[in-house]
Amino acid sequence: MTELICIGCPRGCHLKVDEQNGYAVSGNNCPVGAEYGRNELTNPTRVLTSTVRITGAIHSCLPVKSSGPIRKALLMEAVKALKDVEVASPVHKGEVIVRDIAGSGQDMLASRDM
Amino acid sequence: MYDLIIIGAGPAGLSAAVSAWQADLKSILLIERDRELGGILNQCIHNGFGLHLFKEELTGPEFAGRLIEMLKDTDVEVMSDTMVLDINGDHEVSLINTHGYQKVQGKAVILAMGCRERTRGAIAIPGSRGSGVYTAGTAQRYINMDGYLVGKRVVILGSGDIGLIMARRMTLEGAKVLACVEINPYSSGLQRNIKQCLEDFDIPLYLSHTITDIKGYPRVSQVVVSRVDEKFRPIPGTEMTFDCDTVLLSIGLIPENELSRAAGIVIDPRTKGPLVWENMETSIDGVFACGNVVQVHDLADNVAAEARKAAVAAARYVQDNQPHTGELTVKTAGNVTYTVPQRIHLPVTDKLVEISFRTNRVFGQCAVEVVDKDGNAVCRFKREYITPGELQKIAVPGKLLEGREEYLTVKVTEEQK
Prior knowledge:
The complex is a heterodimer. Chain A has two domains: 2-42, no CATH class; 49-110, CPE0013-like (CPE0013-like fold), CATH 3.10.530.10. The model of chain A has no long low-confidence stretch (mean pLDDT 94). By secondary structure, chain A is of the alpha+beta class. Chain A has two helices and ten strands, in the order E-E-E-H-E-E-E-E-H-E-E-E. The radius of gyration of chain A is 17 Å and the shape is elongated. In chain A, strand 5 and strand 6 form a beta hairpin. By secondary structure, chain B is an alpha/beta fold. Chain B has three domains: 1-116 and 253-321, FAD/NAD(P)-binding domain; 119-251, FAD/NAD(P)-binding domain, CATH 3.50.50.60; 324-417, Immunoglobulin-like, CATH 2.60.40. Helices cover 20% and strands 34% of the residues of chain B. In chain B, strands 1, 2, 5, 6, 7, 8 and 21 form a seven-stranded mixed sheet that branches. Chain B has a five-stranded parallel sheet with strand order 10-17-11-12-13. The longest helix of chain B is centred in the C-terminal third of the chain and has 20 residues, at 300-319. Chain A binds chain B through residues 4-10, 12, 14, 46-51, 53, 58-61, 63, 65, 72, 75-76, 79, 93, 111-113, and chain B through 35-36, 42, 45-48, 51, 57, 59-62, 64-65, 143-147, 172-173, 190-192, 194-196, 200, 298-299, 384-385, 390.
């Protein structure tokens, strides 16, 4: 049995995951917790948010986020892959900035217009 | 003459503007001192916003973007890059921008100025005055908007959410975060942030510890961390030294109420925000307040909800102001440190009166109780877990407040097992 805090929403449910029993989750108040509890012990993932350089814009950084959860083990590699990325304004929210980041199958998307 | 003037266009001001428009106020002025709208959301590039308001998980810029899109469908007049200098009890607002100084008149005003961070001076950390000591939000702005990594080896003082978010961000950007040090025996941030920002990266959280010395000049080179006793006094002999070049402070936020004070609005010393009625009206008729200028929230979604309440009340004030006949004061007992609202108009016109509050300690199974002045229970809400780091909310049915006099008391009691 493993105890976890769910990160699915700010409520932060105290989960118990039973590895011996097919990763059954208790303590969750919604289906997000059940899925998170199971994934966290089998294949933990996170949505990645970061920034890339942008030229000709109001700020020098453009916020980006992954189109979906990325395997936790790939996070550092994904951030490294963003290091030398530079885009030019204008960029629109949802625009793909890097495709298939670190081979995760997820794209990095612009979080805002800039 | 505007129906409504809103000061500040962060999550509170943007939400208030959209909600006031939806509540049929047609002449609204929204004033923002920054060049762009969105306030602090623009530098909060992490996700976790919008689950309540938009039913999906957004980043800060996306959350702001949604509100700005909604604003574009209205005729709300926006003045950015504009500083409000003064407001007065007659709803007259003095402002200055590149066009010069002017006065604008509103029928009502909503204060949505937000808050700012406590600094090193607020807690008087001993030691040298080398560079490398930042508030977490300042560091967040440098790294997320200007692309400047503020340091390589970091100790974070305080476990507020911004500090936790910055622990993760700096780690991902290649810095080493050595420790997060919290003087209280509990974290002041959301539990999910302890998990996903500290535990995910094996960053130790030292509860009941504080920084007792900062060494190094012209740049920070070491900090000394000591355990504290229950009265927050450092315990000699417990010192740990960390070699670091950066200290981030995440030690709390202060509502930004210079304008409110100058206008003569009554400030609650506990929240450091305007004392408000249940409809978010301040001590001056027709001046409402919402968001972090009233009380420090954990979630932008809750700020938006509070802003909606203020906007609806401001619209009601402009369109059809019904004078109230009585009032109830909301008192606190035990471990409840404050409530918002602090006062309730009688008769209650809404179905539910929401009361938010914080406690000064952690509770397991417990009940939030509201009692009247004679000690009669008004209502009771069971809770699994309460921590000071998370703003609590109860909704008292308006009907239950009929006939109550003078005051109510909100308290938390441990559930008997």
